[in-house]
């Protein structure tokens, strides 16, 4: 019998399920730009199309300071408090 | 001052449990069968067994040998089985025979090692044990090494002792399983076999540092998991490190797990970045790092295993795994390992760590985010420093894309090129300045067009003034982002270039950490 020591941090990973998918769109919808090149082009188009197809919604735009780092906590909380759904443009 | 001896309970050959302290004065003797001196003293100890008011405990270090001793000497005295060597270890028995006289409360009164006739004779007289013809015995016989002091066994015993510094979860691999295959199956490896991190190996690895094994070295992205010295040591064993390399690995983990280095982004980026480690200072020589022929390649254990240990820490503790948080489009071989030392003495330039504010005699590791390299810079014809710096600039223009203005890079200047710069009295600053000069192009030439879409967006360019478009800008946002080190063989006019990643506050900033000196 060989005994080895666990090279991991031994924590049980937290399993998070996806947020429920919406069957319709209303209220405030967020568009999050992670600031990768041309992400704004994609979101401009989405903004336009959403406003055309769902005239009742309000689109609110957000952007990460840099695509290289996770979104700051303040930005995550702001989005969570202000919108019913968010669409993120990864642009890769 | 008397020392209180640790209590124990062991079984004799009949399976009877005998405990210490016994409540009487006691003689405890540690022996093993293949020791000639033990063979000499066993009949004497057996004679002591008949003395009233004294308990005699013989402790044998191997069950089979114990049976041979019992039969060979027709022993009356219980011979206790310490095959596990735990009592021998906690009593700090380094040689056999060791005879210890203890009082009823378990305090040590006397300790004899080996056989010195005069000492034994005095002790037996004190204990009122007579009838031994001492003149027929040799005057001196040396002791043999205790099995508990065998380096291989001692490491296991230290790992299993009550005060073991190890706290990591132990995983038992069934005898029918191949431990190497097991570790592949568990996802512990980078795709190559790893050394099984047994408790003995980890104990030996921890001897490479004075730091407490349970000290938190860093919180490792992307899972933000705390890494103790012990956990880093486990991964260093797996990578193939020697204990002497551990301080470099620990410093590298500290450097990479900083907000400035932004390991989360480095691991996650589709660009496929990975930490590149450069080591400076006296530790290079002490642990035998390669900074000369083939320094950026394979064949040197320290170079290879230090970089690999860092990667395994990021994989196993930070859980940066391809397909998970690691999202590299292509990946690159630096994701196995990339670490080398600077040949500081080969040039008259200040070495990297001194440029970065450390003392010459500090040992330092510097981590850079690198997306590709080493890219070869071939220049066998330039005879002046300016020509050579120009060549390097032209090659650097291609980093990531000729139209992209970029940030950090690491330029590894080979010795023959160093000589060309030295002949021209070129400093590192001169080289950087020249690179910036030759890479300058008007912004207009960086605008995406029909030939290639990469570069400044045409829409953005349309809003720029004529002066802005005519402005000649260099390849690097700042001269200081060109990091220069010296390495390589004496022969060959071939330098190397590592391409960086997104630099500065919006990406990664290279980080240096001083390495603990353990001499």
Overview of this structure, please?
The complex is a heterodimer of chains A (about 90) and B (about 525). Chain A has a domain at about 30-90. Chain A contains two helices and four strands. Chain A has helices spanning about 40-55, 75-80; strands at about 1-5, 30-35, 60-65, 85-90. In chain A, strand 2, helix 1 (about 40-55) and strand 3 form a beta-alpha-beta unit. Chain B is α+β, with helices and mostly antiparallel strands and about 525 residues long. Chain B contains 18 helices and 24 strands. In chain B, helix 5 crosses helix 7 (about 200-205), helix 7 (about 200-205) packs across helix 8 (about 230-240) and helix 14 (about 385-395) crosses helix 15 (about 415-425). Chain B is elongated and about 115 Å long. The interface of A and B includes residues 4, 8, 13, 65 and 66 of A. Strand 1 (about 1-5) of chain A pairs antiparallel with strand 12 of chain B, so a sheet runs across the interface.
Summarize this structure as a short list of keywords or feature phrases.
heterodimer; A: 92 residues; alpha/beta; three-stranded parallel sheet; elongated; B: 519 residues; alpha+beta; Glutaredoxin; five-stranded mixed sheet; four-stranded mixed sheet; 24 strands; 20% strand
The SS-based structural class of chain A is alpha/beta
Oligomer: heterodimer
Q: Looking across the biggest beta sheet of chain B, what order are the strands in?
A: 5-4-3-7-8
Helicity of chain A, in percent?
Answer: 25-40%
Average pLDDT number of chain B: 95
Q: Largest sheet of chain A at a glance?
A: 3 strands, parallel
List the total number of helices of chain A. Answer: 2
Largest interface: A-B, 20 and 43 residues
Distance between the termini of chain B: 33 Å
